[in-house]
Structures are given as structure tokens and as C-alpha cells.
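U., I forgot to send this yesterday:
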Amino acid sequence: MTWVCKRAGTVDIELDVPEIVGKGRPRFTRLGKPYTPAKTAIAERIVREGFAEAAGDRYADFTGPVSISVKATRELARSNPKDWAGRTDMMKPDIDNVLKLVLDALNGIAYHDDSQVIFTTASKGSRTPRGTGNKLHITVRYYSETRRGKQ
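Result:
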């Protein structure tokens, strides 16, 4: 008996974001209560709202396998020379933290739980000229599994 995995759907979005942000570490109040840093909370909200606008809530209860691809592209800072456009982006935030932010933001809206994510790719695009904006390109692929053969 074999299991067959077939693509059940795809959502592809490109978000214009004010800043490319990685998942921040939890902070604690003086009383020891944890909270999410403001930058992280705002970035997660932007990703959630962008996905909801593109796909609605049709995948919120999806329980099958999911793959996610994230590409972050940042424009040059004002302090960078213009001829740096096209240069490799090796500055903060780390791409694994950007991926973690996206996975956490989409939890419960793009899939039931992020434990369903079986494959990820994350990359940083080359720096773009000033005025082009920061972009976050997210592709979520959904799969259905079926059993084939004798049972």
C-alpha cells in the first residue's frame, strides 16, 4: 500500500511591508509576564491581514501537509550608495527569523497548525533601489494525501 500526495491548492501573495522584520524574542514585564515585542506583533498582523485578503479563511482548518516559500526583498537604506542596488543582502534580520515570523503569523489562518509544514524555503532577494519598497513574497502550497493499493 502506498500513500500519494497531490497538490490541493496554492496561495501566492506579495506584501508591501514597511520593514522586513524577524521574529523577536519574547520580552517580560517586571512581574515576569511574557509579551511579544511591538515590531513583531505589527509585522505578524500585516502578514495575517495580507493572507486573509488574498485567500480568506478557506484554509484556516486545513489539516493536510503544507509547504511554504518566503522571499524577503529590501530596498536600500538612505545611507547606502545608489550603486549598491542589486547587491546581496547579508544584513539583519536573519532569514530564519523572518521565516519563523511568517510561520507563526499564518498559524490558524493559512493552516490549522504549523506542525503541518513539511517543507520550507526562505531567501533574501538582492537589495533594490530606494523607492521600490520592501516586499515579502509568500507562497503556500497545500497537499492532500490518499492511500492507494491494498488495505
